[in-house]
Specification:
4-stranded antiparallel sheet, 130 residues, single chain, 4 helices, alpha+beta
Amino acid sequence: MQPLPVPCPAHLIPDASGTAAFHKVYRQAMAHQAVFVAIESDGPHWTVKADTLTAGPGHSVDDTVNEAVRAAIIRMVHNREVDADAYTGPIYFMMHSVLSEERARELAAALHAALHGDLEPLKRAVPPTS
């Protein structure tokens, strides 16, 4: 498997449902020194996961990006779009109880872009409050 392109289209976000699939996708991200991002089926809902450790020491995410990602996740928690147990980074990110696979893919792709410095997809997926 090739590393995910940046930006990554939502339909290419891997489904890492199940232990074997998760380990496979995570190991592939480590092998390519890429940011891990995936979705997982959790019964009727979906989970979005991302981890920057897999990208190695050469990958960094600046404070502005981390704050924007954290703020977006908190807005989704307040809007009850994801559960309150969400991880908001700065290294590991997770959002439970996303209602659909399509939305999980959209959020994962936006998070992946943000973790590579492009906040525009995240702003479209989770608009800032006015």
